[in-house]
Each structure stands twice: as C-alpha cells, then as structure tokens.
Amino acid sequence: MDATQLRRAIARTPLAPVAAFPKRLARVARHDAKVLRISARWLVTSREHHNYTYELTKLSRHHLAWFVSVVCDRPVQQVRGWLDEIESDQALRQHIERATAGAARRGLADKHVHYARRVGWYAIVRATRPAHVVETGVDKGLGTCVLASALLRNAQEGHPGRVTSLDINPEAGYLAASEPWSEVVDLVIGDSIASIGALDRPVDLFLHDSDHSRAHEKREFDAVEPKLAPGAILLTDNVTSTNVLAEHAERTGRRFLAYRESPANHWYPGDGIGVAW
Ligand SMILES: C[S@@+](CC[C@H](N)C(=O)[O-])C[C@H]1O[C@@H](n2cnc3c(N)ncnc32)[C@H](O)[C@@H]1O
To answer: From CA 177, how far away is CA 35, in angstroms rounded?
Structure first.
C-alpha cells in the first residue's frame, strides 16, 4: 500500500479527524500569524481609528471594474480607464496629503492617500454623469473629494453636476473645502434624515455612508425615495453588514448587486458597494 492509498484508507476510519488535525492546525496557524503580523504593523504605522483606508488587492480591483461595467452598462476597458484616472490624479492626491498634514485632527489620519472602494464611486459618477449626487456621511471628506473630482471631469466634458454631502459633525469635510473641488460641493451639517427632507433638487445618485445602523440606513432610503430623479441610482457603503438596500430594491422594483472589496495588506476585512438601479 503506498502513502496515498494509506491516507485514503485512514480517511474512511474513525481515526480520520485525529490524522487530519496537524494539517488543519498548521493551516489556521499560518492564517492567524499573517493577520497578527499585518495587525502589528498597522498598529505601529497607521494612525486611523475608524473609516480605515487601504488599497484594494489587484483581484478586487479587477472585480470592481467588472461590477461597475455591468451596473453602468459600459465597456470594462472604459471603466478601467476611469479607475486609472482617479488613481493617477496627482493634484487631488497632493491636495489631500497637504490638507491632512495641516488638519487639527492629523494625529488620527494617515499621511498617504488610499481610496479603496471609493474609486468605484468615481467610476460610477464618470459613467452616469449625474447632475446631483447626495452623499450621507462625510468624515474627513475623502469620498467627497473623489466624487467632486469625477464631477469636475464630467463638467469638462460638458456634463456639469454637484454633490450635496451631509454630516452631523460640524468638523466634517475639511478635505473637500478647497478649490477646485469645493466648487461643486455643498456641505450640509445636520442629521441626514432632516437634510434629505430639505433637499430641493432631484437626486440622480444617492450614497448612504453615515450612521450604519440598520434602522438609520433604512430611514435614509425611505426619506430619499420621493426626492429621486427618474432612473436614479442608489448606493450603500453598508452592504457587507445589512440587507437594507437589497430589500429596498425589491420593494421598489429595482435590480440589486453587491461588490465586496478585499483590502491589500490590512487586517480590516473591507466594506463594499451595494447598488440598486
Ligand atoms: C464612515 S464615515 C463617512 C465616510 C466618508 N463617506 C468617506 O468616504 O470617507 C461616517 C460619517 O457619518 C456621520 N454621521 C453619523 N451619523 C449621522 C447622521 N445621523 N446624519 C449625518 N451624518 C452622520 C459621522 O459623523 C461620520 O463622519
């Protein structure tokens, strides 16, 4: 009996779990050691305490390009072009790095810019050319800058648009307070539900990224529904935690898809983009 035949014979006996234990232990230990290594490095090198930033893995970026291509019905090569466009926008990158270095809360922010799934938001804005984007939850304003950047490029091509960004924290949005990005940003401070209720222009693209409780996410989608322009697109940053947008899509007769991002070299498992259209 050779080794393979012996292994197969043991696999059919009650001894199988005991025989498999060392291999299982080695696998999980290798995985956990990698997470521990990455976590320890992050504790020393990063300053972020929430809303973590990172790059996507190469594979995750490929999947994001296809996700946007399917949702927006645009060729995947064109979507890849938009991902390259935001990633190679040196003016935006330098602005964010400078504004971060000069911010009062710089002790809780990383020096280098990592957009993660926000490059997907950029590509969706480039593909759909919305006149009015609404983003709930601004934090430092990284996503607002990305959205504003896409709107500025659209405007250069004859399709102007603005983003209304809503946050309850009066200190939010400092990254998006400089020109040219601020030229297309309307920052509104207050609870997002009240601010959505006060919107006086139809919304073409809505992004939930504020209070990520299930109840609040649902309240936002319910509140924005009567404000939407025909054919509006709804996005959620909360798709790895709740099914709220999928349920909203089903109730309102829309399609739904979810993309789950994979951070490169980060302990955080990542968020995603949920879309209803
Ligand atoms: C995850 S951060 C937003 C991240 C941002 N979109 C980005 O791209 O980096 C969540 C933000 O939601 C805000 N927030 C929490 N509850 C809110 C509410 N009820 N109304 C408006 N904003 C709220 C917080 O102040 C925080 O800045």
So the answer is: 37
Q: What is the DSSP string of 15-81?
A: THHHHHHHHHHHHHHHHHHHHHHHHHHHHHH---SSS---PBPHHHHHHHHHHHHHHHT--HHHHHH
Residue 143 CB–ligand 1 contact under 6 Å: yes
| Cβ atoms of 238 and 208 closer than 8 Å | yes
Domain edges within the chain: 3-42, 52-276
pLDDT tens, residue by residue, 81-102:
999 999 999 999 999 999 999 9
Name 89's Cβ contacts closer than 8 Å, sequence gap at least 6: 149
Predicted structure pTM score: 0.96
Cα 63 from Cα 86, distance rounded (Å): 17
CA distance 217 to 234: 12
Q: What one-letter code names the amino acid at 164? A: T
Angle 54-217-48 from CA coordinates, rounded to 5°? 25
52-276 placed in CATH 3.40.50.150: yes
Give helix 244-252 / helix 214-224 axis angle, nearest 10°. 30
- Helices (DSSP H) in the chain: which residue ranges? 3-11, 16-45, 58-72, 76-87, 90-102, 118-128, 142-156, 192-197, 214-224, 244-252
Mutate to test the pocket of ligand 1, among 210, 216, 238, 271 (most ligand atoms within 8 A of CB): 210
> What is the tens place of the pLDDT at every residue in 196-255?
999 999 999 999 999 999 999 999 999 999 999 999 999 999 999 999 999 999 999 999
| C-alpha 142 – ligand 1 centre gap (Å) | 11
